[in-house]
Amino acid sequence: MNDSRPIRAKSGTNHEGTSAHNRRVMIDALRINGALSRADLARATRLTKQTVSNIIEELERDGLVSSQEAVRRGRGQPSTPYRLVPEGAFAIGLQIDRHVTRAVAVDLVGSVLVRDEAGLPPGGPSNGTKVILDLVAGVRSKLAGIAQQSEKRLVGLGAAMPGPFGVAGSGDDPWMMEAWQKFPLLETLTAGTGLDVSLQNDAAAAATAERMVGAAHGIDHAVCLFVGYGIGAGLILNGELYRGTNGNAGEIGMALLFADGKSTPLEHRASLASLYQHLSVDPADPGLYARINDLALRGDQSIGAWVEAAAVDLRWSIHLIETLFDPQTVILCGSAPEALVNRLIAAIGPLLPSIAERRGRTLPRLQPGMSDPWSVALGAAAGPISRAFDPRFAAILKDSLQS
Amino acid sequence: MNDSRPIRAKSGTNHEGTSAHNRRVMIDALRINGALSRADLARATRLTKQTVSNIIEELERDGLVSSQEAVRRGRGQPSTPYRLVPEGAFAIGLQIDRHVTRAVAVDLVGSVLVRDEAGLPPGGPSNGTKVILDLVAGVRSKLAGIAQQSEKRLVGLGAAMPGPFGVAGSGDDPWMMEAWQKFPLLETLTAGTGLDVSLQNDAAAAATAERMVGAAHGIDHAVCLFVGYGIGAGLILNGELYRGTNGNAGEIGMALLFADGKSTPLEHRASLASLYQHLSVDPADPGLYARINDLALRGDQSIGAWVEAAAVDLRWSIHLIETLFDPQTVILCGSAPEALVNRLIAAIGPLLPSIAERRGRTLPRLQPGMSDPWSVALGAAAGPISRAFDPRFAAILKDSLQS
DNA sequence: TCATTAAGTCAAGTGTCTTGACTTATTACT
DNA sequence: AGTAATAAGTCAAGACACTTGACTTAATGA
User: Fold this and answer.
1) A254: which chain B residues are within 8 Å (Cβ-Cβ)?
2) How would you write chain A as a 3-class SS string?
3) Is B393 in contact with A398 (Cβ distance < 8 A)?
4) Stretch B392-400: mean pLDDT
5) Predicted structure pTM score
């Protein structure tokens, strides 16, 4: 009897799962609402005062929350608000881009404490690995210099790089970072740092950043359209980043557009890469960012044509995102100079009609997000923080409770 | 001090939540794997043998599972497999379509026990409500006739109708069921049946059906492209149906395509509605389904042109779905005649290149799903069953534990 | 001044999972 | 055959985290 095909089942849970969830819910409530008293927390989470007291006490002992001065709010005993302690946890974020790698250290509330970058030599991982590990080590030791306990409170290293992952590339496509894609990055970083390492694409990282400290803060359904060297969408669905089967969900830049009888991926038309090509400049030029920002600020003609063309495609992308994901809002972010993003946003409006047009909207259909060269690294760092502290289904299940 | 903005927080959980989750996990494991012993369940769910024993005992008392004959599997005491009891729960599904309404009664494992349909008179809800309530009542009493205890074990009424929901329609768009959209359907059905009523769009219902008894069974990331009068995508993400902010996620039929200088929604080009228009036939004709099937079987020329054109758009839709959702598989289903769906699938291939093309795939990129006029009603009925018995995050939280 | 209101604590109680020893039933080896 | 090994499943006590209800504390308002 060959009855040995593996049994598939979801994992069960127990007291630990309950407790882990409730701790995360507390932290999440404090993150969203700023500072809350135990009584407030009990009402908001539907737990009893006693339970909240116990958990808060424990979190305070762990250095994750601390009390503020008591506040008098009418009759009754004054309440003691609690807030997150920024120094309660740290994470390191690493962005691996085409010509540069950036690392940041952030704290529990998402403030960037240390940042550093290094040029990535050509040759892919064989030349770049050491640069990256040195960069991370540098940021890590600088963090240790300004925050005692940081090593003990480091929850992980989040890495971000352009996707898609694990796809058999066409080899001759210069838009893909072929060599890095094939490289066992997770294993190398784990071995090189001893940290808990995770990996996401840059659009997902941008979305993670927006959710922790940006326009998606406290929003459970948002899509971040990320315009960088390529284009991607970071998906916040049901309050969690959605990764898809292989971490490639949201790779809208790979969507083929048909025009003039030929098909072109979106990101060949509307990304920074296409702008660089349009301007015939070298993407590896370190002064490029400032120059583009300057051109955009001056309303330069050479950029104007690209902006107009890109806006058409981005307008359609937003329409498509609204149609397929039905989010509360779409956030336009990127690793593009801010002046350029502003021009893009201006050129994109008005949006196409879609199911997002409904009475009673509270959020705008399109909002600007971060367009800071460091936002991807920040989002990469936000990944481990989120994994460690945000409420999520997986955190309840027994197989996730070893940490 | 105006500190009274509402506090936002996720709900905590307690023992009840743990227990509810573990019960659901057991049922899910039995649904996916067929029949499992207590020891198997303990290993698969990572719970202890004792816990599994207690839960199984309770589920057996509740009539949801039952033991089968012991099986000898090598050394050791023989194991006693348990399976789901079909008669353990029932649900009623209701499809409201343009010219017809269908209702089915299903059991815990998704078998259709009763089915009935009725024509929907023009005039929208004012004329249709009574027809619908009578249809549901009829199915319900027929179910009571063949399954004792059915009333006690009825977990809800699931309704499905074309989306999108709550969108300010353009009034003159005959493709939207304006009147029904504005009608307080949930309230009317709840009042008229006394059941727990839920509502989803027809593509979501089709996906729910595929997940319970179809091609998405046991798959956690799948998208069902539903070709009916309109076109929609039902999204199974992380093992749950994703609804979006307003239940409109996946409304791909509303995606605008640009060609020949004008924009057209996808579903004006590739849905059954477009076929009916292409053939100049009356969609309300009751014999239409059979006639189309016949034409498709005969390889009729008039259908061939539409199939070729529609296949182009559907091929692109599948590409887009793969790109944005990164699912394990895409399932093509519909309320179209099977012969037509088969011709469509044949015409769609080969698929466009996408991130779904990767080594080590186990599932095909595109699979045929149900193309049965009753599949939407079945999916509608599967909704309440899934809500009541499938493991999901929301079922753990305190505010969902009143039932 | 004192009733009222609300925050927060105390201590016992409850529900659900866990632990470890034990029983039962079968196969495999001597 | 007889016995050791193996695996399923049970028993009873234990541990853990949330709940309950009474109590304490500290403010407001009449």
Assistant:
1) 323, 354-355
2) CCCCCCCCCCCCCCHHHHHHHHHHHHHHHHHHHCEEEHHHHHHHHCCCHHHHHHHHHHHHHCCCEEECCCECCCCCCCECEEEECHHHCEEEEEEECCCEEEEEEEECCCCEEEEEEEECCCCCHHHHHHHHHHHHHHHHHHHHHHCCCCCCCEEEEEEEECCCCCCCCCCCCCCCCHHHHHCCHHHHHHHHHCCCEEEEEHHHHHHHHHHHHCCCCCCCCEEEEEECCCEEEEEEECCEECCCCCCCCCCHHHCEEEECCEEEECHHHHCHHHHHHHHCCCCCCCCHHHHHHHHHHCCCHHHHHHHHHHHHHHHHHHHHHHHHHCCCEEEEEECCCHHHHHHHHHHHCCCCCCCCCCCCCCCCCEEECCCCCCHHHHHHHHHHHHHHHCCCHHHCCHHHCCC
3) no
4) 91
5) 0.94
